[in-house]
């Protein structure tokens, strides 16, 4: 771990974070890297800034020790030539963050199980070193140049500033029940946030926003029983995620190893691709020479309809009806019927 050096050439801006901006940069040892720049605040005294820099250096040394294929490596900490900013130098992950996938729409079961498995491996390595991430969310899961998921942006959040950070960084939807009531984090709160991350990736931003704000619901208890599921999500996935998000840490999945054991057997077939366009939800999957489609029109709570059919992928042949509502039905019936359809 290097100390304060000033040999990094800062390039274009590639992202924003609560603690600072992220830029592409060139490092004389590691080549192309990503750099998080944390600048001195106007309100900071020279003494406070000096103390903060010393704390950042100690933290960077801790982070550099957490070497693992599913953790973004922190190479070193550098100080800008004017001494007014600190720069975390880390591996550049060319695939970007999973925030993009979340914003785009629901991810497939296969994709979520893959990245979830990789995140669990990295999280297990952190926990084995006595470290808590405290900030598991789609934006902090990065894909490297080979598509491997790596956990990033850890080590800066502490229990002391968790609420202020979470509120400003849009992270309070990922604070477990006990954090709201006790203000303390643990490896169990990382597991809770991992469960929330899986739920978000499976459903995408548009569906997620249809529910009440989690930050207003979690502290009341029983939040995992209130999750609103897309009907194609299998019951085994639902049970696994709910077990990660239990209010009582003692009743939650006990360790990353236990989560891995349950997670590894979750089904990924059939692999439906889901798209949400306002009130309409569409699914599609291909099997052999045919494409299977499902269409759910959600005009209102009382007026919904759905239909499912298969069609020849190459355009040769006839469409085959597979099911449907047979007219307008209420939202509960439509959801229940679709859930049963996808079970088959």
From TrEMBL:
It comes from the Bacteria. Residues 8-264 form the Protein kinase domain. Pfam families: Pkinase. Coiled coil: none annotated. SUPFAM superfamilies: Protein kinase-like (PK-like) (SSF56112). PROSITE patterns: PROTEIN_KINASE_ATP (PS00107), PROTEIN_KINASE_DOM (PS50011), PROTEIN_KINASE_ST (PS00108). Residues 303-344 are annotated as: Disordered. Keywords: ATP-binding, Kinase, Nucleotide-binding, Serine/threonine-protein kinase, Transferase. ATP binds at residue 41. GO terms for molecular function: protein serine/threonine kinase activity. This is Serine/threonine protein kinase. It comes from Falsiruegeria litorea.
């Amino acid at each position: 771990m290097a100390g304060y050096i000033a040999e990094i050439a800062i390039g274009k801006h590639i992202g924003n974070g609560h603690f600072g901006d992220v830029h592409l940069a060139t490092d004389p040892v590691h080549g192309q890297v990503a750099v998080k720049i944390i600048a001195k605040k106007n309100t900071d005294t020279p003494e406070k800034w000096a103390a903060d820099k010393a704390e950042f250096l100690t933290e960077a040394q801790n982070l550099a020790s957490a070497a693992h294929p599913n953790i973004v490596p922190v190479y070193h900490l550098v100080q800008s030539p004017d001494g007014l900013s600190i720069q975390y130098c880390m591996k550049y992950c060319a695939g970007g963050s999973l925030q993009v996938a979340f914003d785009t729409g629901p991810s497939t079961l296969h994709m979520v199980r893959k990245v979830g498995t990789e995140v669990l491996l990295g999280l297990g390595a952190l926990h084995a070193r006595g470290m808590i991430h405290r900030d598991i969310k789609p934006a902090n899961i990065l894909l490297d140049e080979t598509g491997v998921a790596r956990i990033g942006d850890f080590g800066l959040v502490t229990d002391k500033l968790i609420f202020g950070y979470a509120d400003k960084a849009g992270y309070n939807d990922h604070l477990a029940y006990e954090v709201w009531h006790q203000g303390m984090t643990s490896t169990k709160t990382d597991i809770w946030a991992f469960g929330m991350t899986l739920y978000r990736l499976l459903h995408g931003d548009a569906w997620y926003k249809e529910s009440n704000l989690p930050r207003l619901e979690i502290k009341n208890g029983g939040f995992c029983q209130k999750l609103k599921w897309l009907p194609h999500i299998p019951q085994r996935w639902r049970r696994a995620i709910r077990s990660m998000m239990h209010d009582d840490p003692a009743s939650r999945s006990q360790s990353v190893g236990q989560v891995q054991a349950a997670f590894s057997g979750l089904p990924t077939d059939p692999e439906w691709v889901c798209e949400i366009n306002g009130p309409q939800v569409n699914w599609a999957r291909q099997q052999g020479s045919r494409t299977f489609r499902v269409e759910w029109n959600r005009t209102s709570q009382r007026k919904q309809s759905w239909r499912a059919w298969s069609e020849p992928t190459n355009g040769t042949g006839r469409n085959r009806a597979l099911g449907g509502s047979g007219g307008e039905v209420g939202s509960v019936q439509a959801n229940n019927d679709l859930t049963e359809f996808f079970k088959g």
